[in-house]
Automatic annotation (TrEMBL):
It comes from the Eukaryota. It comes from Albula glossodonta (roundjaw bonefish). Pfam families: CCDC106. Residues 40-52 have a biased composition (Low complexity). This is Uncharacterized protein. Residues 1-15 have a biased composition (Basic residues). Residues 1-82 are annotated as: Disordered. One of its GO terms (cellular component) is nucleoplasm.
Length: 178
């Protein structure tokens, strides 16, 4: 269709019939609603697509918070012998006297609480039997693990009633002992 400068020519050529006013309102409303719906859906998809791509370009990576480690772990090491178990037990007890909580003391020393409870029998037997005339505790061999040695210490303690009584007495007399 050729472009013309006159305003009236293009409009008159497109309109063939003149609808009445009511028909014009009804058809005009429906058409405008459709246009609005189409425009809103079209514009939202086209706008959001362009916004999305521009957001990707503008958006920086989220910075993650780094945990501040004030001091490195003081103590949490793997133990290989009963002497290491006794040393760790004494360190945890010293921290327990300060904090009054086994959980806090284990956490501050980077030691697992369950490990302390499982190996406490070794420390108790070796500490109490150290200076007394009880039977000698079982020997620790290099093939033996600390967990297995804890089990043998438990059976040794069950068979040695005076040593068991002494440990119970120390636990009750020391109010700081957990």
């Amino acid at each position: 269709m050729p472009l013309t400068r006159g305003k009236g020519r293009t409009n008159k050529s497109k309109r063939t019939s003149n609808p009445s006013g009511d028909e014009l309102l009804q058809s005009g409303n429906e058409g405008s609603d459709k246009r609005r719906l189409m425009d809103s859906s079209d514009s939202s998809t086209s706008d959001s697509g362009s916004d999305f791509s521009s957001e990707k370009e503008k958006r920086n990576k989220k910075k993650r918070k780094n945990k501040n480690k004030e001091t490195p772990a003081k103590f949490g090491k793997r133990v290989h012998s009963p002497e290491d178990v006794v040393h760790r037990h004494r360190v945890v007890l010293k921290e327990f006297w300060r904090t009054r909580s086994i959980s806090l003391s284990c956490e501050s020393l980077s030691v697992d609480k369950n490990t302390i409870t499982l190996t406490a029998i070794i420390a108790e037997v070796l500490i109490v039997a150290e200076g007394e005339d009880f039977r000698h505790p079982p020997e620790f061999t290099e093939e033996d693990t600390v967990g297995n040695y804890a089990k043998t210490c438990k059976t040794f303690l069950e068979g040695n009633k005076p040593l068991e009584e002494k440990i119970k007495q120390l636990k009750t007399s020391l109010s700081c002992y957990p």
